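Why should sequence recovery work at all? Because a backbone constrains its sequence more than one might expect. Tight turns favour small or flexible residues, buried strands favour hydrophobic ones, and helices have their own preferences. The token representation captures these environments compactly. In the example below, the structure is given first.
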């Protein structure tokens, strides 16, 4: 955890981490069709057909290792960024 927040994950970082874990679980258990994950991934060539992918690509992880490393970086750096930018600024920056 971060010393910047007294050893606790900041609110916006916690929300992003929760959303990432929830999306990972959903894509591995309920939304298992390959077309679902493909529709959430960002592909610049398909941006006009899938504009939502500018935001949803943040929630698609290829493996548990990818999710864990992303989460580790998020928890290590995110609270400091959130403290500097505020919760809304952090979410805009993250997205």
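From this structural description, the recovered sequence reads:
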């Amino acid at each position: 955890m971060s010393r910047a927040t007294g050893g606790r994950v900041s609110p916006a970082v916690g929300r992003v981490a929760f959303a990432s874990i929830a999306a990972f679980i959903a894509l591995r258990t309920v939304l298992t069709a390959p077309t679902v994950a493909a529709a959430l991934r960002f592909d610049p060539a398909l941006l006009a057909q899938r504009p939502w992918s500018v935001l949803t690509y943040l929630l698609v992880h290829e493996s548990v290792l990818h999710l864990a490393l992303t989460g580790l970086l998020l928890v290590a750096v995110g609270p400091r960024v959130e403290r500097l930018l505020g919760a809304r600024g952090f979410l805009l920056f993250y997205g």
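A few observations help interpret the result. Helices lie at 11-29, 34-40, 53-56, 64-94.
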